[in-house]
Amino acid sequence: MIIYLMCLILFCVGVYCILVKKNLIKIIIGIGIVEYAVNLFFILVGYRLRGRAPILAKEQVIQNMVDPLPQALVLTAIVIGLAITALIVAIAMRLYEKYGTFDITKIRKLKG
Amino acid sequence: MGSNLLPLFVAIPLGSAFLVSLLGKKLRGFTDTFSNVATFSLLSLSLLSLLLIRSLGTVVYKVGGWIPPLGICMVLDNLTTFMLVTVNLISFLVTIYSISYMERYTAKWKFYTLFLLMLAGMNGVIVTGDIFNLFVFLEIASISSYALVAFGVEHEELEASFKYVVMGSVASTFILLGIALLYSYTSSLNMADISRTLAQKAGGRLVFFVSALFIMGFGLKAALVPFHAWLPDAHPSAPAPISAMLSGVLIKALGVYALARIFFNVLGMTAKTSSILMVLGAISMVLGGLLALGQEDIKRLFAYSSISQIGYVVLGISMGTTLGILAGLFHLFNHAAFKSLLFLNSGSIEYATGTRDLRKMGGLTSKMPVTGYSSLVGSMSISGIPPLSGFWSKLLVIVAAIQAKHFVFASIAVLVSILTLAYYLKVQRLAFFGELRSTLTGIKEVPLTMKLSMIILSLICIFGGLLLLPRVQKNFLNLATGILVNGNNYARAIFGSMK
Predict the structure, then answer these.
(1) Rounded distance, CA B34 to CA B28, Å?
(2) Strand B59-62 relative to strand B73-76: parallel, antiparallel, unpaired?
(3) Strand, helix or coil at B357?
(4) For the complex shown, is ipTM > 0.90?
(5) Which terminus of chain A, N or C, has less C-beta within 10 A?
(6) Top-level CATH class of A2-54+64-99?
(7) B332: distance to nearest CA of chain A, Å?
(8) First to last CA, chain A
(9) Domain ranges of chain B
(10) B148 CA to chain A: closest CA distance, Å?
(11) Tens digit of each residue's pLDDT (9 = 90 or more) over B185-232
């Protein structure tokens, strides 16, 4: 139970970071934290206590294995997260070139 | 034969995106022709699937030969064909338009690559029958749309795109969290299988929590009101053809379609979720309309109007009655046509005059008759002037609300449609009617390909009402409605078609 609670705390730290921080880079880090919290939760869903790696070899009984499917899914989710991070960092760099600052309160040409 | 058609909807745009990015830099004329051929073949395939499904019924394609629920499957049912026709029709017309319009930008091949990737993502979301697969395709479409919003790499574009990425990726994590919870409860990712499991053991509070996560996640992609803040920045900042795609089909394929499919066919629509969605739809209608009224930037006005119109669609679909869903889907189709037409018009204005500010325009119809009259058709259609398509779908939404005894929502829908008329009259008066400004005397009408796609779209707006003719309605809209009305049949149809 406690591990799920810590996972939730990690999620909340990420959301706090996105909502409160003014620096573009810190917001990007916040997105990363939120993504990892969800990935961690997904892994925990398929985990069982003292389970072993889900490798099916010859003469081996399927017993006490962790669920391999969430691991495969999280691998995909991590790759997607990488793509988003790469894109958003590139945008943040271009924003710095245009505005000369990472401060989100000074980057506001759009309003209404 | 029918099932082998399905992966093509993803494979064609994905493969052509690859080829365009590989060869586009060297062969200049190649990208235009090739992308147009790709989108045209997608359109013909989706029209063909419309014919095929009548003889074959629900078609299931098993990816890699694995039998669902173990493997991933792709599903072609009546709602899928309806959405495929809508998405691919608009995307084909938009690529025709892009031939001339995108000459203003330096890297046309990059534009086509991202465009085709976005199309692959949208078609994937529509055809997939696996909930994690849906998430992956949703991300493909979203990431390419983030990049397309920033395509101009100027101050506003970058700022809008940053906002869009932050909000969009948070929404995606909510969706992923919902999928994780659903998997932990049902131990399946196949949507039909999840629906079957949930029918056997009641979900209770978990399903309600998952519904909340999905409303947040997909609601943000659909730009329902509390989650709409990215749209009025992102849609105007993109190049005009992309604005047309984003407002015309992306928010519907990723947002409304995914919401409808998951709530009606997988989780099951309860009275609670239905009323939450209806209230969100009504708030979107009112707030989007009110905010649109005060805009001076033509594309920003259209973007707010999208929020307002998506409210109609969500209100109609979430009513859950046959007429309500029919009205919602019909308005979805119509809105795809007239909103992309209007965004293409705004692109033509920007192409000819170089401005998006309504106060600097005036009397454009005399110089640009095609743009002027097609935008008149689009504006009249969206604000619900009788013979045009928008009138029929709005009328149906209102009648459906009255029939389901939601009198408050019905009166809101009537009032918002008057509001819509008000701000479209403002566009017409400031931009197209009146005296031609002295600064604008040198402008010319846009090139032929741009005119062509605007004319076709305005013809769709004029004759869209014909979809309600009994014979046509029976074969197109009613079938798609039936999938959502008989939500529980989804699992049975899929497992039945594999026997």
Answers:
(1) 11
(2) antiparallel
(3) strand
(4) yes
(5) N
(6) mainly alpha
(7) 26
(8) 45
(9) 277-468
(10) 11
(11) 988 899 999 998 888 887 778 899 999 999 999 999 999 988 988 999
